[in-house]
Structure formats: C-alpha cells, structure tokens
C-alpha cells in the first residue's frame, strides 16, 4: 500500500502523482491522508481520477471535528462517484491540529474515538432504504462504501477501540519493537472484546537510496513526534535525546531537523539501499505487522519513483 498527503513542504498536488505511479506499479491500495491542506474525501475522489485499480482509504479523519454520519457519508459518496471500494480511517489527531487548526476542543479524545468508531461501523454497513440513522425519516440512498474501517491507535484506550470496532488498526512511525509491543496489546484487547483481532498496519516513511533532500524530508516528519509520549522514549533510547529535549523546549522544525542525525530516519522507517529496506520490511513482518503503507520521500525523488519502483509488489 501507499499513503499520500502527509503534511510537509512538498507540492500540494504531489499526492496525485504519487498515487498515479503507485497504481501503475501494482500497489493495491492508496490512502488519502487528511491534514490542514487536504480534505481526505475530496483527495480520495481525485485519486480515483488518476488511478485505475487501487482501492481507496480516506483518513485518518480526526474524530473531534467530524460527526459519525459525516464520516460515513463521505466514504459512501466517494464510492458512489468513483465506483471503487472506499475505506475510512479514524484517529484522534493532535491538539495542535484539532484546536490549533480547526478551532475545536479536543476533549475526551479516547472516548470520542470509541463512540465514533462504534457509530461509523454501523453506518458503513447500512443498506439503501434503511433509516439514515435510527429513528430518522430520511432513508439511505447510497450503497455502503465497501471498504474497511480502520482505527489509528497507540494508547491503550485507542487500541481497545480498534479491537472492539475496527477491521484494521493503524500505527504511524513505529519501530519493529513498538510493533511487537502494540500487537501484543491488540491481541489482548481483541480477546477481551470477543473479536478476531483486526489486521495491523503501519504508515512508514520510506526512501531507497535517499539523497540529502529525501532524508531531510523524512526527518521533518519525525520532528513532529519528538514530544509525543511513547515516541519520545523510543528516540531517547535510540540516542537522540538532544533532539527530544530541543522539541520539549519548543524548538521549530528546522532546528529539530538539524539536530536529528540521518540515522533517526531508520529508527521508525525504511531507509537505505533496496536490500536493506527489504530486510527491514521483513523485520516489521516478524514483529507482527500485517500491512505496510509506504510513505515515500518525494524531495529529491519526484513522486517517490525510485522508492516505489524498487519496492513494487512482486
């Protein structure tokens, strides 16, 4: 799989080029991310115009800024106009995005995620002719979107929400050891919920034979995680404590990128020559990861062509 539209300094239409290339190379699914730049459902519909076969997933959508019907309706609308199966991913996002960009309160995020996941799951499977929501006189007119429900999770309560309601749980920027630990938590939570464990996937930044621009782009993505509980500990243990301290002091992204050594990108991503990256993919699989959504570096490698070609499905 390939994920597009991580928030960075790449051209705003870069996701379209990445998706078109991924589809031509045989990647089976493209994720349309959501952030301050792109609406995930609009981007997913646009991606369908430049691809032919790939399934589509929109999100993760921040649950604090959209109600369950809006989310399910968005997925069904994209499926209706594209003729593709469309999945939807949910997440709590961050205070910086929810409050700083949307101007909405990010209160009780784990509870809102759990409630939204339960409601969206029901809404995604409703048939035409049924009430659009229980008790409503409005009837469903669009078929179900046909794709999976994904919940992005890291903390225990979010993992419990994924285990109870999702078809797939999503991780982001994780090491193989984190995958191992989080999969164990997922299995325990699914057993407690009485469900088959969801598929476990991760968005991983990727760059095969990266040049300095590609590495800087990847380090810029990592910089945003240096103050996130759990992630900060991983980077400290990996020897990048100075950058973590700088982030905690409020340093800007450019300062953090300069403070992070190139090796930091390989801690939570796929970096190196093709053989090294494939070995790293195997390490993630051994740790319990079922699916990888590549987030290719595009700086110095337009559309991520070098990386996506080297790692194309065999």
UniProtKB/TrEMBL annotation:
SUPFAM superfamilies: Bacterial luciferase-like. Residues 10-290 form the Luciferase-like domain. Keywords: Oxidoreductase. GO terms for molecular function: oxidoreductase activity, acting on paired donors, with incorporation or reduction of molecular oxygen. InterPro entries: F420-G6PD/mer, F420_Rv3093c, Luciferase-like_dom, Luciferase-like_sf. It comes from the Bacteria. This is LLM class F420-dependent oxidoreductase.
């Amino acid at each position: 799989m390939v994920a597009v539209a991580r928030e960075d300094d790449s051209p705003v239409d870069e996701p379209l080029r990445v998706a078109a290339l991924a589809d031509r190379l045989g990647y089976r699914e493209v994720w349309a991310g959501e952030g301050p730049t792109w609406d995930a459902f609009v981007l997913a519909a646009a991606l369908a115009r430049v691809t032919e076969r790939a399934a589509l997933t929109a999100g993760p959508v921040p649950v604090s800024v959209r109600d369950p019907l809006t989310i399910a309706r968005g997925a069904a609308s994209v499926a209706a106009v594209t003729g593709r199966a469309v999945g939807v991913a949910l997440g709590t996002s961050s205070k910086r995005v929810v409050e700083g960009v949307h101007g909405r309160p990010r209160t009780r995020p784990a509870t809102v995620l759990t409630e939204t996941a339960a409601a969206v799951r029901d809404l995604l499977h409703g048939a035409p002719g049924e009430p659009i929501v229980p008790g409503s006189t409005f009837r469903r007119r669009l078929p179900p979107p046909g794709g999976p429900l994904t919940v992005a999770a890291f903390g225990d309560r979010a993992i419990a929400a994924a285990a109870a309601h999702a078809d797939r749980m999503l991780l982001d920027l994780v090491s193989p050891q984190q995958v191992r630990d989080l999969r164990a938590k997922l299995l325990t939570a699914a057993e407690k919920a009485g469900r088959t464990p969801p598929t476990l996937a991760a968005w991983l930044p990727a760059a095969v034979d990266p040049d300095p621009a590609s590495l800087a782009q990847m380090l810029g993505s990592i910089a945003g995680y240096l103050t996130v509980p759990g992630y900060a500990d991983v980077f400290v243990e990996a020897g990048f404590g100075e950058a973590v301290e700088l982030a905690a002091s409020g340093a800007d992204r450019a300062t953090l990128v300069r403070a992070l050594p190139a090796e930091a990108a390989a801690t939570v991503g796929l970096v190196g020559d093709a053989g090294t990256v494939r070995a790293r993919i195997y390490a993630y699989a051994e740790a319990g990861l079922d699916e990888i959504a590549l987030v290719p570096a595009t700086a110095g490698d337009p559309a991520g062509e070098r990386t996506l070609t080297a790692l194309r499905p065999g």
